[in-house]
Amino acid sequence: TLILMYEMLLREPTKENLEKQVLIADLATQLLYKNRQEYIGETDQLRLLSESAFWTHSAIRALSNMGDEAKHKTRAFRFAELNKSVLLYNSVQTERAYVFGGLPDSLVLKEKKLQEEKVNLKAALLEQLPPEEAKVLQRDLSAVNLDLNAFQEEIKEAYPKYSQFKYQQPSISLESLTQTLDSETALLEYVVSDSFVHIFYVDQESLDMHKVNISKNELTQVINKLHSVLSGYQFLSTEPKMSHQVYTEQAHYLYQQLIEPVLEHKIGITKLVIVTDGELGHLPFEVFLVEGANQEYDYKKLHYLINDYTISYAYSASLFEDAIQNASTQKEKAHRFDGKQQMLALAGDYEAKTASELEYLLPAYQVLRKDLQVIEGAKKEVELLSKIFEGDFLWGAQANEHSFKENAPNYGIIHLAMHGVLNRKSPALSALAFTENGDSVENNFLQAYEISQMDLNAKLVVLSACETGYGEFEEGNGIASLARSFMYAGVPSLIVSLWQVNDQSTAFIMKSFYTYLKQGMNKAEALRLAKLDFLQQAQGISTHPAFWSPFIQLGSSAPLELRAKSSSTWYYWAFLGFLLVLVGGLFYRNKRAA
């Protein structure tokens, strides 16, 4: 009925009809939100979020056609936030409800246990199992869902304050958001619909809305071309002229379409927080080209967006605001890591195993394990950190999944140098590959669903692995990646990669990143300077953005207090010299294979 009414209003785009379109869209999103509260299955939630996207896009389009008044832009921005990483936002709200909702600890533990059983059963059903075993698991999942439904109904009745926190609809206060931004920072939020891209610009003083006439299909093609040339080391080496042309054309086009209209007349802005949408989450905006390129193949001379701005990323404005406010109120705790140890760093070991050593694994994981190549730079990364910072640094057999699960909650910074395994068909089964140690309980593939169930206290997780920020886009829920799983686990800030990374460039960038972080810089600026340092000293093909731009900073960029070992000075300069020699001999054949 609502769709029929909406389609009738589209025939005459008068101001009155545009307002009615917004009212219908508002009603539809509210009804879909209420319907979502009746479902606990993620599949049903995602289906309803996909339906909600139609209405949020419709409302934004109507409001953008109603004029440039502040009230229209504010309403449109509220609709944009209704479909940004909603399930992750709900997870954050649940944790807040546990703290402020008055729910007894025993009931908190009961709900978490039921949720964990549900997640584990759903993940198990994604594996290739015998039909009878799958039926048993499906019956168990149905039983857990019934128990969880009954439990949550009881809680709603007995603890209304808890329910109020947990089930409130995502809502963004523009006034509150602007107060979290300093005078040099702007937030850019993108909404990709079938025919347009709407871009919201927010700084301390203003909210602007821009509509770009580019279809979703056209944008996806450009994104795929650029991501392909950035991640295609072989194409870069075998077709340098073609790869240069594709890169420079697409990177400049995206700047012209997505950045220039928004920042053209903005003065004093040096920091950008990017909230992406759709496949835009597969790209580092730092590589967009402010100016077009000629046929000269010197990548050092190109005018990248990173030359002008420090860029960080957020899943939504609501989550960004929450992270900033939490970092502010918990500043002392954050610096002291809540009394936990400073750093845990692990390097995976991928020495070949015999068939008998792997026979305890499911066949699919045996194949995965055999395909993992040794990462020469991983151990060196962790050894370097061990010589400079306080904490625990593990490689070889010690860098196993069981050890990580047992000890990870005790650290303020977690650094993982290992293979990432992307599962495009079932994102919940994407994993980090730890050292194989024959554990009969853990398979040493820490999967996304397992990460999301952990309770971590780290203020920063650095995933020095392949494609940890890459994944399939889920409408209303964002990019399904390993990075998002760590956000579910309570981590406010991550450094993640968008494609397969190069060993030597990664070693240099990570070393430089931690050096700047130790000097008191915020995470986004530390990563920016590390990339620029690499570009400045790199030679030949290694100056290409494929080598220096895969890592991005997600979430809170607030600085951290890093304690260096008193005896680290000699190691610092010695290793820096070693890295300069090492990076000079970069070869694309050393890329990490996911």
Secondary structure tally, helices: 25
- Quickly give the structural class: alpha/beta
Helix content: 40-55%
Please state the CA-atom Rg, rounded to the nearest Å: 24 Å
> Quaternary status of these chains?
single chain
Low-confidence stretches: 331-336, 578-594
Largest sheet: 6 strands, mixed
Q: Provide the residue-averaged pLDDT.
A: 85
Terminal residue distance: 48 Å
How are the strands ordered across the major sheet?
7-6-8-12-15-16
Strand proportion, as a percent range, falls in 5-15%
> How would the global form be characterised?
globular
Number of strands: 16
Key features?
single chain, 594 residues, alpha/beta, 5-stranded mixed sheet, disordered C terminus
Give a structural overview.
The protein is an alpha/beta fold and 594 residues long. It has 25 helices and 16 strands. It has a six-stranded mixed beta sheet with strand order 7-6-8-12-15-16, with helices on both faces. A hairpin with a 4-residue loop joins strand 1 and strand 2. The protein is globular.
